[in-house]
Design brief:
mainly alpha; two-stranded antiparallel sheet; about 55% helix; globular
Amino acid sequence: MNEYKNTMLVSPNKVKESGKLNINVEDRMIAASIRVAQNVYLVDVIGKGLVEKLQQLVFNKIEGNTDTIDDAENEAYKTLLDEYIVEVLQQKTVIDLCIRNSYKVRNMGVVKNSDTNVNASDIDDIKYVQNYLETEYNHTLNRMAEFLCENKAAFPECVFDCDCSHTPKYANINLFLG
């Protein structure tokens, strides 16, 4: 009965459409990174209840059930998903793919793929790209946080803790500010 919990809130094609990812990246690799971005990072920010509510609404639409993301009474959820969460998930998915696509766990251990026509990046370059993308990711989190604070009453499942005069801010730094 919990089939909806396998629903991804963004598709591999939507991540490719962001322009930050090559079209030939395998969908299964992207899907694995989406699941990490959604079920680990997004849940940490907005809470499991709100993520599951969104999954249920999207699942209902896919299955042709009632109470879908497109229903008028779910307009706030659709806006949250379409204008904020999709972008958050696109960003974090690409960040996760930097490592997932660069290094593979094989029977020989952790290996780095290479080709005669392509030079693999070293770990410092990969970390640089991740850091660059992390700044954009934090910007999208801040936009989402502002939206959630302005519309907190529309999301009873949300555990996002904010006093709307003090919206939480996400930043790309190596310090814990909480």
